[in-house]
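Translate sequence into structure tokens.
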Amino acid sequence: MEMDAEAFEQLVINELDRLPDDMVEGLDNVVFVVEDRPEDGSLDTLGLYDGIALTHRDLYGGGELPDRIIIFREPHLAVCETEHELRSEIHTTLVHEIAHFYGITDEQLHEWGWA
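Result follows.
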């Protein structure tokens, strides 16, 4: 599947807007970023949470840079054939990475069917 960066970013924004309020209202000092690929250039990673999970923020609050939730465009396009699939995959990736902000592990996400 092909899609330019601007259109992909708009899909990410749209999917963010569809997330439940109680999921996103608790996000503190977090920015969402769209990048083409991970630094290693692979297509294996759809998203990344780069920050300190809420459950580990004992000493947090002293002017730290914002945590980042990164959504990678090219890996998403590589695994999706239709825009419907792409929207669904972006939604799942957003939920997965936001879960990491709240301290939910990959193992828990696997158990719940979100990883």
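Note: The mean pLDDT is 92.
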